[in-house]
Each structure stands twice: as structure tokens, then as C-alpha cells.
């Protein structure tokens, strides 16, 4: 009968009774949970889990960014309105009144400015509505936010102004925060 290497301090020593190994119950005692933790209940899958109860930080940040974008839209609407006032003021200038080029520019420019104001107001209303929906909306609100931000990205890239860089970065962050796993779980949570 061999007991292993007698010089191995971790091996079974000669003349000692056999002891149970690590993790095995001793002498007929039932197995207990390790490290003082109670046994977990068995895993049961009843479909989709309840989802988060508190809005994740990324979604909170996206909502704040939507409000900031709404504030930037207000500033843009004010600047466009000032441009309309300026064009109308110069239209009454006697030196420019006789200029056919200026009158053509003023007619076209004023109409274009009114279109930009209408688009900015629509974008402002959408930003406010989607910021409100972050707290209570479902997956449709999440998809709406992503589509809204994607449309805004395209508009920020084409007529590139220094302020549109801020708008562009905010929209990219909104998409990232809403599209993350915790954002998806927040918008897909069941609402009772």
C-alpha cells in the first residue's frame, strides 16, 4: 500500500486516517451553501424580466441632452426671426428699394427663412415631446428618439456652422445612450 511521497507536505501522510477532500460533506452531514450565503432559488423563466425600476444614467443624460437641444432650437428660432426682421428693415431702405437683385433676394430669402423657422419649431416640439417620453415611453419612444437624432445628424452635417458641432455631438450621444443595453431595457420594461 502506497501513501504517496513521504516528503510532500501537501500529500497524504503515512499513518493518518483518510480525511474527506475539500468541498465534500463529512460523516453523513448534508451539504451546506458555501461562504455563508443562502441557497438561491431555482432559476425560472417566466418570459421577459421586469426591467429596471430606476431610469439608467445614460437615458437620464439623453433626456437632459434633448432639453439642451430644445434650448438651442429656441436660440436658433430667435436668430432666424431677427434675420427676417433685418431683411424686412433693409427692404424699406430707399437705396436698396430700387435694386432688383436685392428685391429678388429679399423675396426668396424671407420665404426661405420662414421655412427654416417652421422646421426649427417642429424640431423644437419633437425634442420636447421626446424628452418627456424618456420617462414614460415604450420602445416606440426609443425608436422615435433614434430617428429624430439621426435626422438631426443629417441636418447638422449639411449646413455646418460652429454651433452645429455642439448639436452634432449631443445627437450622437443621445443615440448612443438610448441604444445601449440598459437604455433598451428601460424602454422595453413592462408598464403596469
UniProtKB/TrEMBL annotation:
TM annotation in the entry: 64-88, 108-132, 161-179
Keyword Transmembrane: yes
Bias (Low complexity) ranges: 9-23
Name of protein: Integral membrane protein
Region (Disordered): 1-27
Keyword terms, alphabetized: Membrane, Transmembrane, Transmembrane helix
